[in-house]
Fold these 4 entries.
Entry 1:
Amino acid sequence: MNQPTLPSHAEVVVIGGGVMGASTAYHLAKRGIHDVVLLEREEFFGQGSTGRCAGGIRHQFSTSINIELSIKSLAMLQNFQQETGQTIDIKLCGYLFLLSTPAEMQQFEQNVALQNSHGVMSEIWTTEQIAQRVPLLNLDDIIGGSYNAGDGIADPSGVVNGYIAAARELGVKAFNGATVTGIDTQAGAISTVHTTLGSIETKTVVNAAGPWSA
């Protein structure tokens, strides 16, 4: 697919074409900001951290903000095909964390209590409960576990491709092979993003380049 010419100006430039950058570009456009340019240095979108992740989906976090984000994210993922037209092979097969020390058990008991307070039905399992449900596990050094049946997995590449396609439908211009080489500022504000495909004047940059952000 031939790429459009890099525009000379954009309201927002998003750096990084993984799941975070693709989602950001899509949701900006969905909220009415259509003059968005997405830049990815690799040949394909989602080749960085996104392409190397296992695609895990879970509610089992230790802070309220992450739990609430997980609730909203799962709702989006469950309706992803309807919203973007892209299948993501989502499977809510459950997550089981195995715990081997009293300190871990105490921390996860606190985590589960916090998750329950947000309406997330995680559970603490004894070794007997684990053995009943996963009989092939070696539990010699395990004292318990934390389980949530609503956790699972999805296809990271599908999520990225869905967001990119839906963002483009809303007017976002997304580019591969566009390595950012510099960012100019004037009076303390961003003015220009320089790339291997050209330069873009903008006042707003979202840096979603993962490890390359540094």
Entry 2:
Amino acid sequence: MNEALLRAFIYGVEMDREKAMNIPSLAGAILKIADTVAAIPIKLYKRNGDKNEVVEDERTVLLNEDTGDTLDGYQFKHALIMDYFLGKGGYAYINKSGRKIESLHYVKESNISFRENADVIFKDYQIMVQGNTYDPEDWIRLLRNTEDGIRGKSIIEENKESLSVAYTALKFEKNLVSKGGNKKGFLKSERRLKKEQMDELKAAWKELYSNNGENVVILNEGMDFKEASNTSVEMQLNENKKTNGIEVCKIVGTPPAMIEGKATERDEKIFIKYEINNVLKALETAINRAMLLESEKGEYYFEADTDDLNRSDIEKRYAAYGTGIEKGFLQVDEVRKKEKMPQLGVEFIKLGLNDGLLDPVANKVYVLNTNKTIDLNKLRKGEEEGELNLENNPSSLTDTSMQSGEIAGQSGTEEPEKNL
């Protein structure tokens, strides 16, 4: 083990972004999240009572397709997520012309600095880039574990020791491989060697461990090679690699099976529910805060369209649709829309044969057994008129009851005569 590696084990490694991304499990986990989030489209919705309507807007084009900058929509979101995990946050400048957003410009977090006030309650700051000062309202700011709303905390900053162990183990493995797997040991000489002999021996030994050919060292008479025993670290290298990989995945919040390509349906659900959804919510909040006009807030909102992300395999999906249609809380056209198929214009809700078909738009019921259509509006109007007549002329109910009683009484007196 060389001196630099020994110092790393004793004193630790000063981790940075470049070193962190050399750890396979960390790079795989973060790239998995960034790739997934970047592929999800952002849509603009309008609240309209109980309904949320999709609104066509140029801002969604900037977020999903063409940012107006050198990056496209996918690359733009991908870069923000990478800085979210590995830096102080994801930052993007919003280029406006009046109230209209013309373009979005991602800026690498290492190029961002701040000018802050000293008030810990009423915090205020400005963003500085290459000597220019900008108001934070003109920026999308995606911050992880922030305490001041100005800068976030990276995974590297929060987990220096754990990542240092994983990185040092990687360097240790590289050191072993660079020596061609040759056993470590020490040379023993029966007589004292001169400096020239020592230098020549060191050069030959270095050539042997350089792993650049089938090198051979011939020992002179009186010299012997004593093999050193393997350390516990060497003997458990593979086991340590697995353990370190699992620990790094825990840091990011990604099931290890997702990185290994052995993910089960349960692993995928955990990944989406506890990691992807959280990152998406942070991204949505940052976009809503920065890209909505003050007059739009409360009525409009940006949200990720996760329909494709949550889609299961076709067999389970179609079975779920069948249940929804059978129970009456899904319509055929709603299912076809989810599957990106042309809609048929069918506005009926399928009910049981004894219930018929309900048209919620026209408020009519078609009864299959009787082949009749009932207009619920007219039916309700008739009931209301009947109730109104009853309120205006309550004696009609009494008269009707008395007439019914007289008829019943006459029927009762005539019946015995008939029997006689």
Entry 3:
Amino acid sequence: MIAAIRIRGTVNVRHDITETMDKLRLQKPNHLALIREEKNLRKMVEKAKDYITFGEINEEILAALLEKRGYVEGGKKVTAEYLKEHKTDFSKLAKDLIAEKTALKTIGIIPVFRLHPPRKGHKRGGIKKAFTVGGALGYRAAEINSLIKSMM
């Protein structure tokens, strides 16, 4: 499971990249979307790499993300009682999502997570450079987990 976060804004973005980010459900900065590891979705993420950051999310961070930032359709927060009705809990749901055995939509959870900007800012070179050269954009592997933790 890939976690993708939109870093840059919406002004002066090419139309085809805007459409790609809409399909990935990343319409606003600091929004996070969970994306299945499929070839066509991976190509879409690669196309938008100059505006987003992405990497593999682990189970603990995903469970914490669901608990803190998860919302049910209708605008209410995801609670343990709500998940009990669907015969699951936060850690089991996170494990099933990473294994791609279930989807957020089947349980009724909104698939986009609205996050804060990172505490103490985007470290290193800012939001205009790639992660490999000291910035915040592009592929960052497991480092995405520390970024998500600072944005929750």
Entry 4:
Amino acid sequence: MQRFRVLFLIFGACLIFAATSIRAEPLPGTVLKIKPSIVGIGTFMPTRSPQNLFLGTGFVVANGQYIVTNAHVVAKPLESGKLEKWAIYVTQNNKPKLAYVDKIVVDEVHDIAILKLLKGRLPALKLTTRQVREGKLYAFTGYPIGMILGLYPVTHRGIVSAISPVAIPAYNSTKLDSNLIGRLRDPFHVYQLDATAYPGNSGSPLYDVETAEVVGVINKVFVKESKENVLSKPSGITYAIPIEHVKKLLISKGLY
């Protein structure tokens, strides 16, 4: 009888451990859901060498025709005389593919841009309706160093370490410019992460590791210029724009 009790306790402990392990590791399955919706953002010019210019990351939303990225990622003027076009790069069946897009709307205040596929559709990500919590684990997937090592989306994870205003007051007037003054007058909150992102991650989706719902857009330029104007040396902190601003932009154009 004693031996039976010991075996029963061991078996029960194994079941509890297995269940805990399953609950504790949702990220691998979530990454599989996320990756088909991740695209590289850039331009294609037939007379240029190389023909493809990588600028950042984006992700597919709404009906599968629309792509979200940062406004600063697609800020460059196209050299239309040289047939330069906006393009996205995606991996399908383990092969890189190019598709042309148009830039249809830009929100410079929140550094968001919406692109539209000229042909076809891609799997779209769901935008969250849940509140983001400090201390909760999230992840982001994108192309941190562009296409140098191939078109392979890379995933990082970290907690939201703070939710704070996009701009902080400068300690002297020489640090103020028109953009910063505007953000101070009408500030919005951003997510600060304890994970490291790289320039190519700009435009990557920040998502809930359990639900795969997008909660924000990784931003490596716009936010740092606002929040870190008081620092002589920029930090390695990563920020994200809340997804509510993307939803409002899509809704305002009848796209969501």
